[in-house]
Amino acid sequence: MFSRKQILISVFSMVILLVVGVIGFCATEKISFFEGLWLTFTSVLTVGYGDLVPKTTLGKIFALVIIPLGIGLITYITGAIAGSIVEGKISKTIWRKRMGKS
After folding, report:
1. pTM, rounded to two decimals
2. What contacts 101, CB < 8 A, 6 or more positions away?
3. What is the largest CA-CA distance in the chain?
C-alpha cells in the first residue's frame, strides 16, 4: 500500500522535474519562461502539439532525457493514487464485513 509520504515525495519529484525542464529548455533553446513551461508540459505529458519543438541538438538531447523521466513519474503517481483509493475501499469493505460478523 502506498503511503501519503510516498505520494507526496513523488509529486514533489514531479514539481522538481517540471522546474528543471523549464530551466533546461529556456537555457538550451533560448526561449521565454512561458514557452519553456509550455514545451515542458507538452513534452512530459506526451501531448506534443508540435507548435513548439526543440530545435537545437542540446535541446533535443535534453528532451530525450526529460520525457521518459516525466512519463515514469506520472505513471508512478497515477498508480500510487489509484492504489491508495482502491486499497482504502477494500480495507473499509473488509472492516465492515468483520464488524457485521462479530
Report:
1. 0.78
2. none
3. 68
